[in-house]
Amino acid sequence: MSEPSTQRSEHLAAGAVIAQRYRVIRLLGSGGMGAVYEAENTWTHRRVALKTMRAEVATSELYLQRFKQEARAASRLAHPNIVDVLDMGEDAELGALYIVQEFLSGCDLRTRLEQVGRLDPSTALSLLLPVMDALATAHKAGIVHRDLKPDNIFLADTARGVVPKLIDFGIAKVVGDDGGSLQKTSTGLVMGTPYYMSPEQARGDSNLGPPADIWSMGVVLYQALSEKRPYSATNINLLLAKIIYEEPLPLAEAAPDLPPALVAVIDCALRKEPGLRHATMTEFAEALRGCDLTAPTAPPALPTTQPAPAGLPSTFSGLDLAIQPASDAVVQPAPGFHARRVVTGFVGSAWYSRRLPCSQWPERPQIARLPNRPSTHPRPGPFRSRFSLRRPP
């Protein structure tokens, strides 16, 4: 390969020809690894997307392997929702590696979400179920994408309407016919996009499988349906720690109007242990297809406020209570308890931990009896879990 000086111009000029047949029309975008151009195959007169790698980046074995991996992984797959890789090679004169893909017109899912905000469930599933089918095909071929995110889901405008396409297999894990990995990631090396990483990926595990993609798709669905991500943090290290050790913000809290069946299916994809998620991407997709999208979960109605008796605090913002749906119960609260974080719900067979404001308590909760502690304060009269503060008849 030529020295980096042979490609001193930052980008290829319009009219430049790569590999004696790909004529550059215009620059579409660029990044740290290289650039993408609209080009034309002068032999077939077909419009294509031409991706080139910067010569100085090509000196890195890691990035060189990643560039080649993108072409190898995608070229092994034939699916209408996976971008077609048409060619790959090196232009000896320019010293540039290149990948030729089908030309797509449209925008990625990240841009669409920025434009329109959250998607309704029907729209979200119509766009993402085909991508899940594409991932299922990849998994059956021994390929794990490992960088699934809205940026890598392209919404192509076609004569048949919008067609979602899975792109960028640059850090995909490809298993060869002999069972060996064509790309081995060293233990402790974190590759991917942090917000969408599974816990095992955030830990730097080297043996990632389809469950990592299932988690990432769960995050994409979560974001598309709520305009939020399950985790947020001020820096990458804190974000990775939260993904590994903390439960995500419940989707039912981020978007209370979603159908409960849909929430439960997505919650299952976001379980910490890979073995507790959907067994396959196909199973995940079929569970989504079976959801009743016509039964939204309305936010719980607030009860009528009644005056509190003397000596009883007017709010319970400093007290966390363990609750489960059940019949009404009468308990005696003990004043003076410190706020604590406790398990507060069971959604889609996945436990989560959070503080639960009174305004978000579910219908007919049963308040668990708190442990007895010595107290010098007088105990108030009993109250009902439906927020009634007067003694029942």
Word description of this protein:
With 393 residues, the chain is α+β, with helices and mostly antiparallel strands. It folds into three domains: 4-102, Phosphorylase Kinase, domain 1, CATH 3.30.200; 107-289, Transferase(Phosphotransferase), domain 1 (Orthogonal Bundle), CATH 1.10.510; 300-393, no CATH class. It is 25% helix and 20% strand. It has nine helices and 17 strands. It has helices at 61-75, 109-116, 121-140, 199-202, 210-226, 236-245, 251-254, 260-269, 281-289; strands spanning 17-18, 22-30, 34-41, 46-53, 85-91, 96-102, 106-108, 143-144, 153-158, 161-166, 173-174, 323-325, 330-331, 343-347, 350-353, 365-367, 383-384. Strands 1-2-3-4-6-5 form a six-stranded antiparallel sheet, covered by helices on one side. Strands 7-9-10 form a three-stranded antiparallel sheet. α3 runs antiparallel to α5 (210-226) and α3 packs antiparallel against α9. The protein is globular, with a radius of gyration of 27 Å.
